[in-house]
Design a protein that fits this description.
single chain, alpha/beta, 4-stranded antiparallel sheet, 10 helices, 14 strands, about 30% strand, binds adenosine-5'-triphosphate, transport, ATP-binding, P-loop_NTPase, nucleotide-binding
Length: about 290
């Protein structure tokens, strides 16, 4: 099982959205990180065979997916960013409908739907209408539809947007258990979504792949670059203009800020261990080589 993205570029008119992206993936979870507008959804849509690259090639087990999309479609599960459900259907009706669209027989679909509702902890809600489901429950239905054909490639685009913290953790754990025998691509701009579950991280910035590494590898690159600096709140704006501030707290003695910088940002600044969040901010800044 192998997905290869080779020198992929995508333009809409004169606007280049992806620029020479190359990535080779094997089973496991890839966390695809990048700020809004970096090109993540565009890449996901191309991997899902909904769009074709302007140049470059994407192959699934050595077959060009732009030339032969059906080979991948049979093994693909996709949860798009703007996934919607029909509010007047029950999850079973909705999943039967999606299964028919994917060409599954009703008999095999029913068996699979029962299994998925069980795995996704929705069995007790199988007769309720989707319109009354919480965001997290709807996302679980979204994942169920993506898993109907037991896909070898599972693509989930910004799946935790709108979920509460508990639902977010449950969703992450679920993806983690699904990743042993398939390639899972999880696209997000939320670093904590992938911190604990993705052994590989790719960072897109302005259409370019600026990093393809492990969480540990990324954190290492920000070693000795994260500082705790304390300064009066009147200086906050000036510091924000000068430095990457990954977080700040107002205290009685001033602002306590985590600053990502190659150099000591103030005389009283002390070094802190870097986190993935700090390292990500560093990677998508000119300091980390992005521009
Ligand atoms: N069909 C299209 N026509 C023109 N421009 C597009 C089209 N689709 C995407 N874009 C542009 O491409 C850029 C990348 O968009 P994309 O949705 O891929 O980014 P993203 O990283 O997924 O960000 P977000 O998290 O905001 O969805 C944006 O500037 C967007 O406006």
């Amino acid at each position: 099982m192998e997905l290869k993205i080779e020198h992929v570029t995508k333009s809409y008119g004169s606007k280049q959205v992806l620029n020479q992206v190359t990535l080779h993936l094997k089973p496991g979870i890839l966390g695809l990180l990048g700020p809004n507008g970096a090109g993540k959804s565009t890449l996901m849509r191309m991997l899902s065979t909904l769009e074709k690259p302007t140049s470059g090639v994407i192959t699934w087990n050595s077959v060009d997916i732009a030339q032969h999309p059906d080979e991948l479609r049979a093994e693909l599960g996709y949860l798009p960013q703007d996934f919607g459900v029909y509010p007047n259907m029950t999850p079973v009706e909705f999943l039967e409908y999606m299964a028919a669209m994917k060409g599954l027989t009703l008999k095999s679909a029913r068996k699979r739907i029962d299994e998925l509702l069980e795995i996704l902890n929705l069995s007790n809600d199988r007769k309720k209408l989707l319109g009354g489901f919480s965001g997290g429950m709807k996302q679980r239905v979204g994942i169920a539809q993506a898993l109907l054909n037991d896909p070898s490639l599972l693509i989930v685009d910004e799946p935790t947007v709108g979920l509460d913290p508990e639902e977010r953790i449950r969703f992450r754990n679920l993806l983690s258990t699904m990743s042993s025998n398939r390639i899972v691509i999880l696209s997000t701009h939320i670093v904590t979504d992938i911190e604990s579950i993705a052994p590989d991280i790719a960072i897109l910035f302005r259409g370019r792949l600026v990093n393809f590494t492990t969480p540990e590898g990324l954190i290492q690159r920000a070693d000795n670059k994260v500082w705790l600096s304390i300064f009066p709140s009147s200086e906050l704006q000036e510091m924000q203009e000068k430095y990457i501030i990954s977080s700040s707290i107002h205290r009685s003695d001033g602002v306590h800020a985590r600053i990502v910088s190659d150099f000591r940002p103030s005389q009283n600044a002390v070094l802190l261990p870097s986190t993935l969040e700090d390292a990500y901010l560093y990677a998508v800044s000119p300091l980390g080589g992005a521009s």
